[in-house]
Design a protein that fits this description.
Elements: H1 3-21, H2 24-31, H3 33-43, H4 47-54, H5 59-87, H6 89-109, H7 113-141, H8 144-172, H9 178-191, H10 193-200, H11 222-226, H12 229-244, H13 252-259, H14 265-290, H15 295-315, H16 323-354, H17 360-387, H18 391-415
């Protein structure tokens, strides 16, 4: 058997082992991810085109309407996390999905900016609660090392669904035929019926909220949670990672590629396709490599890879409009995607290992808020810097940000519990002997338990 065959068999064996380790609820959640995100992939790249070129809104108004999705999501995330802890993720997710369905259906037929504003706010409500809700749901049904693997595989499937959806949408929509856009938004609404059916059917008995009495004192408000050193440093790391990463994917990267590297839109589209392909093909392999490793060390490697990827993109500015620049732009997205496969399994797993059942919704809401904050600020900074011709400074900021993420990971390693950092054993040399609250991976939440002895 050749090397390729051995690797394929190892991948299949690893995937089979992972699948067998999942509880029934986890299998239900994972088996429908790619289909759920297919509709989102069909609409995500084309919404602003729809508003500007099909409905005839001014480009500035279209951009402002698009920003309402992220702004609404950020506003809703905090209260959403509290509601998840109080009433359970299932109920909150059902409300969010109904809001998403209504928003997509309304957007499909909207011809006035006010109607679009209502539609995108409804979509933003779902974005605000879906991340902490589904992460809390996942953490409830999956624990231990399998939980980290689940987050990674889930991320690959999300990218697969969005990537395939984007390709289908690109071939299907026609700016001269508004009904094609109406169709994709209705498909987006229809795909949201899939998780809704799961929550009303196979997952209807899954509870994420604590079984404690309602009269029990509240535990872990946002202020108290953010006072924990591990949470504070992890949140800063998440925000900065998104600022130099995902926050640049819709603005900084394409703007630099077009204006500085001077590549075609086809090259930019191909780069995004390569990004999706790398994630889908490498995610499970990376999961095997990082299994049992300190998650903070994995993030340090990711930070270095991202810093190098920005150097690679910056180099394309020296040979604008050439085949070399095109290759560099595509390579940037491939290298960047390799780093993504390390970030997505680790950060959500740490948040959920730090949380208890009574605070899981709020921990995931903090994670979501940090992500959305970076996603909002990233395009703003990129627009200003690249608009002023500060492309060299822009690349320098991205590289410096990558190195800063690595430093934050070093700091986080000194204050985080070993179990939350991906270590299966406690009491080892150089780490505190921290007790756990049971096999589900729930740990003590006092700050003293997080600090490493000097």
């Amino acid at each position: 058997m050749n090397v390729r065959g051995i690797r394929k068999n190892a991948w299949v064996t690893g995937m089979r082992t992972f699948w067998n380790a999942l509880p029934t609820e986890g299998r239900w959640l994972l088996s429908t991810v790619a289909i759920q995100t297919l509709g989102r992939g069909m609409t995500l790249p084309f919404t602003i085109i729809y508003l500007h070129e099909v409905r005839g809104f001014d480009l500035g108004i279209s951009g402002a309407l698009m920003s309402l999705i992220a702004i609404t999501g950020l506003i809703v995330t905090g209260p959403g996390g509290t509601l998840i802890d109080r009433y359970g993720a299932r109920r909150v997710l059902i409300a969010g999905l109904l809001s998403m369905i209504a928003g997509c259906a309304l957007l499909a037929f909207a011809t006035h900016p006010a109607v679009v504003a209502v539609a995108v706010v409804l979509i933003g409500v779902n974005f605000g609660v879906s991340w902490p809700g589904f992460n809390a749901l996942i953490a409830t049904v999956v624990d231990g090392e399998v939980r980290q693997q689940y987050f990674g595989v889930n991320f690959a499937l999300v990218n697969l669904g969005i990537g395939v959806g984007g390709v289908i949408g690109g071939f299907f929509v026609d700016v001269h035929d508004p009904t094609t856009f109406t169709t994709i938004f209705l498909i987006d609404a229809a795909t949201s019926l899939i998780p809704l059916a799961l929550l009303l059917g196979p997952l209807r008995r899954v509870r994420t909220q604590s079984d404690a009495d309602d009269d029990a004192p509240a535990v872990g408000g946002y202020r108290e949670i953010l006072r924990r050193p591990a949470v504070l440093w992890l949140t800063l790391l998440t925000f900065l990672s998104v600022f130099i990463g995902y926050g640049q994917m819709e603005a900084g990267f394409p703007a630099f590629a077009r204006q500085v590297a001077e590549v075609s839109t086809q090259v930019v589209g191909l780069a995004f396709a390569v990004n999706t392909a790398v994630i889908v093909l490498l995610q499970f392999t990376v999961l095997r490599l990082i299994s049992g490793k300190r998650r903070t060390r994995v993030m340090q490697v990711m930070a270095l890879i991202w810093a190098l990827s920005w150097v690679l993109l910056g180099a394309t500015g020296f040979l604008p409009g050439t085949i070399t620049a095109a290759i560099g732009v595509i390579a940037f997205m491939g290298v960047f995607a390799f780093g993504e496969t390390m970030l997505q399994p680790t950060v959500p797993a740490i948040y959920n290992d730090l949380a208890s059942d009574r605070t899981r919704g709020r921990y995931n809401a903090i994670n979501s808020a940090a992500f959305q904050g970076g996603a909002i600020l990233g395009p703003l900074v990129a627009g200003v810097m690249l608009g002023e011709g500060l492309d060299v400074w822009f690349i320098g900021l991205m590289v410096a940000g990558g190195l800063a993420v690595g430093l934050l990971a070093l700091v986080l390693e000194r204050v985080i519990m070993p179990e939350a950092n991906g270590l299966s054993s406690v009491g080892t040399e150089g780490t505190p002997d921290i007790g756990t609250a049971g096999a589900s991976g729930i740990h003590r939440t006092d700050e003293a338990a997080e600090r490493r002895s000097p």
